[in-house]
Specification:
Blueprint: H1 7-25, E1 34-36, H2 43-51, H3 54-60, H4 68-80, E2 85-87, H5 90-98, H6 103-115
Parallel strand pairs: 1-2
Amino acid sequence: MFGYGAYAPTKFAVRGLAETLDAEFRHRGVRVSIAYPPDTRTPGFERENQTKPEETQRISAGIAPVSPDQVATAILEGIRRDRFLITVDPQTAAIARITDLAGPILRTIMRRHVQG
């Protein structure tokens, strides 16, 4: 996201860690999920908005912030349904899935190799 140069690499790192842990431990019954919450109405979000670059404000202007309860409910439901990718809103879901077009296929192939 524009204006968050430190955010993007750390998010990719978390994603890579989640994919690796999922590949390494799923065959042992351990499930890994990664959540992509949208802007969430929290005190931290309010503080962030005070210093958010104008360009970033324009990018996120069309996205309505959600409540922490909505985020928690979506995460719990995603875990219950054994989802790897957990999203709360349709916009974030679309972005996450578009950037992960090959991911489900690659994870399935790796699981088959691990299971023998």
